[in-house]
Amino acid sequence: MALRLLMFTPPVVYSGVLWWFSSQPRMLGPEVDDKLAHVLAYALLGALWTRAWWFTTRQSMNQVAATSIALSAGYGVIDEVHQSFVPGRTASVADVLADGVGAISGTLLLLAIYAATRAWAGRSGRE
Prior knowledge:
Mean pLDDT: 88
Strand content: under 5%
Distance between the termini: 25 Å
Structural class: mainly alpha
Order of helices and strands: HHHH
Helix content: over 70%
Oligomer: single chain
Number of strands: 0
């Protein structure tokens, strides 16, 4: 139970942080690339969900990837809808796509690191 709390707290808290940021009037200046910000933000979310699922379930690497990407990218869709109700903000399909690219990138990068460092050692039955 303690391990689950330790692993699942970061992605849940970070999701709240993303929600808070998207509740604010436009915060990025013209020097910050909006799509890059989306990719990086959702790459971190994807990595956090991947870490949580990897260390608390017996899912295969493919299942962890699918779950983490679905949670992260799905949250991106929900957050864009939320953002459409915030004065001064708009929702965009391009932002949803950038969120999805970030979710996929963060998830796959972390799983590649786990595979390269043999982080799955001791987890019998994993592929």
